[in-house]
Design a protein that fits this description.
globular; 5 helices; binds zinc ion; Rossmann fold; alpha+beta; three-stranded antiparallel sheet
């Protein structure tokens, strides 16, 4: 992870297969950030049916800004953001008083490398799913877009898709 690379396919596939065989997935589930590669997508079709793809399109500078301002509590793992979700006291966790730090993979250089890896892997993935699975897209070009706005628009688009 510190080199900006992702967890190997076999590991995630095994974990996913086990998780999706549990009872609580019967009514549906969301895979967040998976599959990321063409190989993963193809392997996924063997044991699961994907109903819709939600594609979040976020400007590169926004991703860099948000991730590089993220801070995590060394003690309890609580996530903060020096721009959007500040702790009451700088560098100190509100919940447990622990010290806040930046993850080794949240620096600008590593984020840029992660984005390069992501784009290279995702493009063939989008091509693979085009025509196979319906898409819902949400574009974020404003760093101050609150999560609720994104959720609302995505839900609206999902409902439209259902009505078709
Ligand atoms: Zn804490």
């Amino acid at each position: 992870m510190s080199a900006g690379e992702l967890v190997p396919d076999k590991t995630t596939q095994t974990v996913l297969r086990e998780r999706l065989s549990e009872d609580d997935t019967e009514r549906g589930f969301i895979l967040d950030g998976y599959p990321r590669t063409l190989e993963q997508a193809k392997a996924l079709t063997d044991f699961v049916k994907i109903d819709v793809i939600i594609n979040l399109v976020v400007s590169k500078w926004i991703i860099i800004e948000r991730l590089s301002s993220r801070r995590i509590c060394k003690n309890c793992g609580e996530v903060y953001n020096v721009r959007f979700l500040k702790p009451r006291m700088e560098g100190v966790c509100d919940k447990c008083g622990g010290e806040l730090h930046q993850r080794v993979d949240d620096t600008v250089e590593v984020i840029e490398e992660r984005l390069r890896v992501y784009e290279k892997q995702t493009q063939p993935l989008l091509a693979y799913y085009t025509g196979r699975v319906p898409f819902v897209e949400f574009k974020c070009e404003d760093i101050n877009t609150p999560p609720e706005v994104a959720v609302e628009e995505i839900l609206k688009k999902l409902k439209n898709l259902e009505a078709r």
